[in-house]
C-alpha cells in the first residue's frame, strides 16, 4: 500500500490517515515502525514523525510492540455512531408513515461552519426522481431546501458568520438565489411558513420541501428532512398537504431523538 503516489494537497494528513487505516485492518494489533514503513512504502523517519504526532493527539498509543490505535478514537467513533443512529431512526420513521411514500425523502445535516449540507440517507417513494444530491456528497446550503430550513433557525450571529463578507452565493441553476440580501429575505419566508422550498434551485424541474428536525439545532448537529418531486405535479394545495406531512415526519423523528 503506497501513499507516495497520492497527489494530496496535505501529504502529512494523507499519510496519517493511511497509518490509521493500516492499524485498523489489524484490528488493534500494534505494529512497529519497520512494518508500518514497509506496508506504506514510506521512509521510516517520516512514519516515526507522523506516529509521534498522532500519539501526542491521542489518536495512537505507544506500546512495547510499536504503535496501536489510541483511546481518543473511541470518542470519535461514539460521535459517528450518533449520526448513524439518526439514519436508522429516519429509515424507521419513513417505513411507518404511509404518507411518506410518495416523493423521495432525504435526511441532511448542516456543516459546523460555512454553507454546505451533507446528505446522510435517502428513501425513494413511488415516484422516484433523479437528484443532484448523493449520500455523503456536500451541496450548497443556500440552494437546497434542507440547507435553507436549517440556516433559517440559526442564531443571527451564527447566520451572519456564515453569510457576511460574501458578495455572491452558489449557483447550480438559473433559479438559484445568488444575492445574499435576497437570500436573507428568502429565509424570512422559511420562518413564516415553517418549512423551506427549493423551486428548481438545485436541479431544474424539481420541487423540494424541507423541515428541520426538532431538537437537533440545540444538540449541535442541525438536521433536516425533505420531500422532492416533480414541480409539474405540485399544485399549491398539494404543496401544503405535503408540507404538513413533512412536518409530522420531522416531529416524529425529533421525538425519537429525544426532542420535547
What characteristics describe this protein?
260 residues, alpha+beta, Arc Repressor Mutant, subunit A, Beta-Lactamase, six-stranded antiparallel sheet, 8 strands, 43% helix
Describe this protein's structure.
The chain is α+β, with helices and mostly antiparallel strands. It is 43% helix and 17% strand. It has helices spanning 11-25, 33-40, 44-57, 72-96, 145-151, 156-163, 180-193, 236-256; strands at residues 60-63, 66-69, 104-110, 116-123, 138-140, 196-199, 206-212, 223-230. It has a six-stranded antiparallel sheet, with helices on both faces. It has a two-stranded antiparallel ribbon with strand order 1-2.
Q: How is the topology of this model organized?
A:
Elements: H1 11-25, H2 33-40, H3 44-57, E1 60-63, E2 66-69, H4 72-96, E3 104-110, E4 116-123, E5 138-140, H5 145-151, H6 156-163, H7 180-193, E6 196-199, E7 206-212, E8 223-230, H8 236-256
Antiparallel strand pairs: 1-2, 3-4, 3-8, 4-5, 6-7, 7-8
Helix pairs in contact: 1-3, 4-8
Query: How are the strands ordered across the major sheet?
Result: 5-4-3-8-7-6
Reported CATH architecture of the largest domain: 2-Layer Sandwich
Low-confidence stretches: none
Order of helices and strands: HHHEEHEEEHHHEEEH
Overall mean confidence score, pLDDT: 86
- Which fold name corresponds to the CATH topology of the largest domain? Beta-Lactamase
Shape: elongated
Radius of gyration: 22 Å
Class of the largest domain in CATH? Answer: Alpha Beta
Number of strands: 8
N-C termini distance = 49 Å
Q: How many distinct folded domains?
A: 2
